[in-house]
């Protein structure tokens, strides 16, 4: 079986229960009642929802999902704060879940959804963008993604037996990745916005105060960490750095967690290695779709290449001083103290 065939998939619309064409106005009004802060310049204000700072673009979708999304026990959610390895986790999960698929016999419901032709964000729908109502994926395992903090997830996700794989990343690299991404995202709008965008120093100070998209970052981690301790069968906790260190090990853990472990035969045939290779930073970044393609979110086109900047551990050293690094480490240590979690 060629890799091309393995990653070609048959379509399978994700069932979305109770989606209504309700006007988002209802949510705009709800959001307008929330406490807000200016946040990073050039971007919209951040709104405080359930003790987390969120941009309206995510918040509207979160409120809609709160009211309408009904998780099924078989669903699997890939959760993360921004810029912690979401794209990679999506790619690996999609590759794991679709590794044995062939196009359907009758060809009637073929889809082109494949890591070769779509950015991983188009392979696995985001909860906050209400993509679950229209998403078509090739995965028989219903895979969804969300940047929402644990306590902001729709109740049915928490209450049902569905599973969550959560990925976090060293805060220094996460911050640097976020600053570059958001600056680039802003640059897509117009140049005046870029000029007014927070400098890396200003954004760093805000990040340290918890004022960042889906921040405070430490609180995002703690929510999932505590939940994973209470319910280890429901939540698998990953670190970007561990994934870099031993990708094969974590790919096998993910497959087991999803309920589709690699068979001895698959392992012998090198399927694990092929999944890892297919989803590596270099492989994905060099695909035409990720070099020159664009990706649409809420009517905004984002260059797919923005999701593949450097993909290395410790890049923060090129952008932050040792002092800044120390400051963030001390904050994280204090905030995570007693939780049993460390970086
Ligand atoms: P998102 O929140 O916008 O979805 P997310 O995918 O979580 O972004 O994070 C992007 C980071 O993951 C980027 O890190 P950097 O800015 O430090 O470079 C990106 O390069 C990195 N990344 C993307 N794909 C991969 C991959 N296949 N392997 C390793 N790192 C990756």
UniProtKB/TrEMBL annotation:
<protein>
    <recommendedName>
        <fullName>Sulfotransferase</fullName>
        <ecNumber>2.8.2.-</ecNumber>
    </recommendedName>
</protein>
<feature type="domain" description="Sulfotransferase">
    <location>
        <begin position="73"/>
        <end position="339"/>
    </location>
</feature>
<feature type="region of interest" description="Disordered">
    <location>
        <begin position="1"/>
        <end position="22"/>
    </location>
</feature>
<comment type="similarity">
    <text>Belongs to the sulfotransferase 1 family.</text>
</comment>
<dbReference type="Pfam" id="PF00685">
    <property type="entry name" value="Sulfotransfer_1"/>
</dbReference>
<keyword id="KW-0808">Transferase</keyword>
<dbReference type="InterPro" id="IPR000863">
    <property type="entry name" value="Sulfotransferase_dom"/>
</dbReference>
<dbReference type="InterPro" id="IPR027417">
    <property type="entry name" value="P-loop_NTPase"/>
</dbReference>
<dbReference type="GO" id="GO:0008146">
    <property type="term" value="F:sulfotransferase activity"/>
</dbReference>
């Amino acid at each position: 079986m060629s890799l091309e065939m393995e990653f070609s998939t048959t379509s399978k619309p994700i069932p979305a229960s109770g989606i209504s064409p309700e006007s988002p106005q209802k949510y705009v009004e709800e959001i307008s009642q929330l406490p807000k802060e200016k946040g990073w310049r050039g971007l919209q204000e951040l709104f405080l929802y359930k003790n987390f700072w969120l941009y309206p673009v995510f918040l509207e979708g979160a409120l809609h999902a709160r009211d309408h999304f009904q998780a099924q026990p078989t669903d699997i959610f890939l959760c993360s704060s921004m810029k912690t390895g979401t794209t990679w986790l999506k790619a690996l999960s999609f590759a794991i879940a679709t590794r044995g698929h062939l196009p359907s016999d009758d060809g009637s419901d073929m889809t082109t959804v494949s890591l070769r032709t779509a950015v991983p964000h188009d392979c696995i729908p985001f909860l906050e963008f209400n993509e679950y109502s229209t998403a078509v994926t090739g995965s028989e395992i219903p895979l969804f993604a969300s940047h929402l903090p644990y306590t902001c997830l729709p109740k049915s996700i928490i209450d049902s037996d569905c599973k969550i794989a959560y990925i976090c990343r060293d805060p220094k690299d996460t911050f640097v990745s976020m600053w570059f991404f958001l600056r680039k995202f802003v640059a897509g709008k117009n140049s005046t916005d870029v000029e007014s965008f927070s400098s890396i120093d200003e954004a760093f100070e805000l990040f340290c105060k918890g004022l960042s998209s889906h921040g405070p970052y430490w609180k995002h981690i703690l929510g999932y960490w505590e939940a994973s301790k209470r319910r280890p069968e429901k939540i698998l906790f990953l670190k970007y750095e561990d994934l870099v260190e031993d990708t094969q090990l974590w790919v096998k853990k993910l497959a087991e967690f999803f309920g589709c472990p690699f068979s001895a035969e698959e392992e012998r045939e090198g399927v694990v290695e092929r999944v890892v290779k297919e989803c590596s930073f270099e492989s994905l970044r060099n695909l035409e779709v990720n070099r020159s393609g664009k990706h649409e979110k809420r009517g905004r086109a984002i260059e797919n290449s923005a999701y593949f900047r450097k993909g290395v551990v410790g890049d923060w050293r090129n952008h932050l001083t040792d002092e800044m690094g120390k400051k963030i480490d001390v904050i994280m240590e204090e905030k995570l103290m007693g939780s049993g979690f460390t970086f």
